[in-house]
Amino acid sequence: MAPLLEIRAARRDFATPEGGKICALDGVDLDVGANEFVTLLGPSGCGKTTLLRAISGFEMLDSGTIQLGGADLTALPPFRRPVNTVFQSYALFGHITVARNVGYALEVAGVAKAQRDVEVAETLEKVGLAGMGTRRPSQLSGGQRQRVALARAIIAKPKLLLLDEPLSALDRNLRQQMQIELKNLQHRLGIAFIFVTHDQEEALTMSDRIVVMRAGAIEQIGTPRDIYRHPRNRFVAEFIGETNLFAVTVDRLEGDTALARTAEGVEVLLPADGRKAGERLTAILRPADFTIAAQGIPGTVTRAVYLGSDLHLSVAPEAGGPDISVAIRDGLGVGEGTRLHLAHDPARVHVLEDA
Amino acid sequence: MRNPWGWVALTAFSLLFFTFIYAPLFVIIGYSFNSNPVNMMIWEGFTFDWYTGLFGLSDRATGVGNRAAYIESTDQMLAALRTSLTVALFTTTISTVIGTATAIALARYRFRGRGAYNGFLMMPMMMPDIVLGIGLLIFFVTLGMQLSLLTIIIGHCTFLTSYVFIIVQARMAGLDPALEEASADLGASEWTTLRKVLLPQLAPGIMGGALLAFVISMDDLVITYFISGVGDTTLPVFIFGMIRRGVKPEINAIATLIILASVIIAALGLWLRSRKID
Ligand SMILES: Nc1ncnc2c1ncn2[C@@H]1O[C@H](COP(=O)(O)OP(=O)(O)OP(=O)(O)O)[C@@H](O)[C@H]1O
Ligand SMILES: [Mg+2]
């Protein structure tokens, strides 16, 4: 089946005041399937908002095409595109009631008042705001405004909903609650979401697929697990989650395992498959990949912090080199200054071939 | 307040300040009810005569005891009031439409010479009235236009548009551009967005600008003096003429009525503004 949204070779340059050019979108290709939850993730200024605005029509592409359900959107003005947006600032209309805000898309489309009222009530119900229709947006809390913005954007049943950091103004608890609600809503409505966030944890928990962007280009697209376990390059690896990167040279092979060392002498075990001694590569291990054991990398704990149920450690390897981040479940008796050995399963190592 | 003397000083200052501003108005209001026809500074007794006299309802005359003279000047005054209202209504409408449209266009569209355009719009406000008045007069004469109601209206529009523009522009600057984007995103054409979002959001500014334009138009003497035809005397020009023939008690009565009208308009303006639209 053809994807719902197809973006091909999208380019957008902005002129800088100094007379130069910034390439906000540098040949972006992206497919989004029907009912898929896709998250755009990347450092500030990498072009996430620009990509979203190109889809909604507020930025025109310099070149490239955007198709939705087979129809070409590239040259259409925003009001002719069947996508809706939840704005970061919510952008609610303060001069009309919540109900009229929510019903705006229908009102503009000429739907009769009676029909509108029914759909508005239904939609308010869906976002948990039943009975709030007669209020003004200024009489709502931040979380409620967020829901109004959401209700307003979904009432016309778009095939694709765009959300630019919709949760960034909410406090942590409300944010987590809204994450769950958004995900449920997306599931029930059968709408595809393109969601922008700075928060990688949010991206990992909510998305079907994550798009990691850098400097206007896509670095990697994949499921959260893919992106986390098999980052394509150093940038993705470092951007998503805490990472330990070891620049190593393969020392020798022992059966299924290859033994590799960093310049300082920290030993990392890898799967042997086809490795040769003297090969240089980067080994990636996540904090949770380590266990405390009788053998392994010897080191001293320099910092120990409880985060929820996990104990997070920084361990300085005896051999030298940067501290290793470790997260363990059961850290009884481990504290700053403890000397220990870190072991890992070779199969957990993700290898980046060095260029 | 921590320091009681500071509070006393502040109160005293405020009292002085308001006295300074409002005393002349209260003096006029007081005088307008003084029945002494010769010297208004000496209280002789309470009367409504100057008010009823204004409308030709009283026989009492100042100076000359001639009722006919009164009726004539009453008619003149009412005619002047009518002229003023006509001018103010037209200029308010025209300058509000042009000023609002200009403010929206300048805020939303980039074009060459935008900065210069902005500067030129301010100019009529900065220009001394007398220069503007003479300039307009010479302009109309050069074009061979008869001075008339039309020239007053055109003249007023030239500078009142700037006032409306400034006020609407301030409101426009405070408006989140995402509102218009949200409207377009939900399927509204530019025209619908203008009608359903932009104008309602700007309404307090537009109302404020219109009220200000109305009041300034009603009040303008200097510019109007140059560009009004013989038959088209506005109220300020009429009053100015009366004063030149001596300050009569009726002038106090007119002034008091104008103060009353201004208070009503100002209260209306404040009330409109208090109906918050955010
Ligand atoms: N209207 C504009 N004019 C000029 N440059 C712009 C404009 N909009 C965006 N840019 C530039 O394009 C680049 C991408 O911006 P964009 O807003 O898409 O980043 P972003 O990924 O959304 O960042 P953030 O995470 O901070 O929101 C940035 O370098 C930005 O400065
Ligand atoms: Mg952004």
TrEMBL record, chain A:
<dbReference type="GO" id="GO:0005524">
    <property type="term" value="F:ATP binding"/>
</dbReference>
<dbReference type="InterPro" id="IPR003593">
    <property type="entry name" value="AAA+_ATPase"/>
</dbReference>
<dbReference type="InterPro" id="IPR027417">
    <property type="entry name" value="P-loop_NTPase"/>
</dbReference>
<dbReference type="InterPro" id="IPR008995">
    <property type="entry name" value="Mo/tungstate-bd_C_term_dom"/>
</dbReference>
<dbReference type="Pfam" id="PF00005">
    <property type="entry name" value="ABC_tran"/>
</dbReference>
<keyword id="KW-0813">Transport</keyword>
<keyword id="KW-0547">Nucleotide-binding</keyword>
<dbReference type="InterPro" id="IPR050093">
    <property type="entry name" value="ABC_SmlMolc_Importer"/>
</dbReference>
<keyword id="KW-0067">ATP-binding</keyword>
<dbReference type="InterPro" id="IPR013611">
    <property type="entry name" value="Transp-assoc_OB_typ2"/>
</dbReference>
<dbReference type="Pfam" id="PF08402">
    <property type="entry name" value="TOBE_2"/>
</dbReference>
<dbReference type="InterPro" id="IPR017871">
    <property type="entry name" value="ABC_transporter-like_CS"/>
</dbReference>
<feature type="domain" description="ABC transporter">
    <location>
        <begin position="7"/>
        <end position="240"/>
    </location>
</feature>
<dbReference type="InterPro" id="IPR003439">
    <property type="entry name" value="ABC_transporter-like_ATP-bd"/>
</dbReference>
<protein>
    <submittedName>
        <fullName>ABC transporter ATP-binding protein</fullName>
    </submittedName>
</protein>
From TrEMBL, chain B:
<protein>
    <submittedName>
        <fullName>ABC transporter permease</fullName>
    </submittedName>
</protein>
<feature type="transmembrane region" description="Helical">
    <location>
        <begin position="222"/>
        <end position="241"/>
    </location>
</feature>
<keyword id="KW-0472">Membrane</keyword>
<dbReference type="InterPro" id="IPR035906">
    <property type="entry name" value="MetI-like_sf"/>
</dbReference>
<keyword id="KW-0813">Transport</keyword>
<keyword id="KW-1003">Cell membrane</keyword>
<feature type="transmembrane region" description="Helical">
    <location>
        <begin position="85"/>
        <end position="107"/>
    </location>
</feature>
<feature type="domain" description="ABC transmembrane type-1">
    <location>
        <begin position="81"/>
        <end position="269"/>
    </location>
</feature>
<keyword id="KW-0812">Transmembrane</keyword>
<dbReference type="InterPro" id="IPR000515">
    <property type="entry name" value="MetI-like"/>
</dbReference>
<dbReference type="Pfam" id="PF00528">
    <property type="entry name" value="BPD_transp_1"/>
</dbReference>
<feature type="transmembrane region" description="Helical">
    <location>
        <begin position="7"/>
        <end position="33"/>
    </location>
</feature>
<keyword id="KW-1133">Transmembrane helix</keyword>
<comment type="similarity">
    <text>Belongs to the binding-protein-dependent transport system permease family. CysTW subfamily.</text>
</comment>
<dbReference type="InterPro" id="IPR051789">
    <property type="entry name" value="Bact_Polyamine_Transport"/>
</dbReference>
<feature type="transmembrane region" description="Helical">
    <location>
        <begin position="147"/>
        <end position="168"/>
    </location>
</feature>
<feature type="transmembrane region" description="Helical">
    <location>
        <begin position="197"/>
        <end position="216"/>
    </location>
</feature>
<feature type="transmembrane region" description="Helical">
    <location>
        <begin position="119"/>
        <end position="141"/>
    </location>
</feature>
<feature type="transmembrane region" description="Helical">
    <location>
        <begin position="253"/>
        <end position="272"/>
    </location>
</feature>
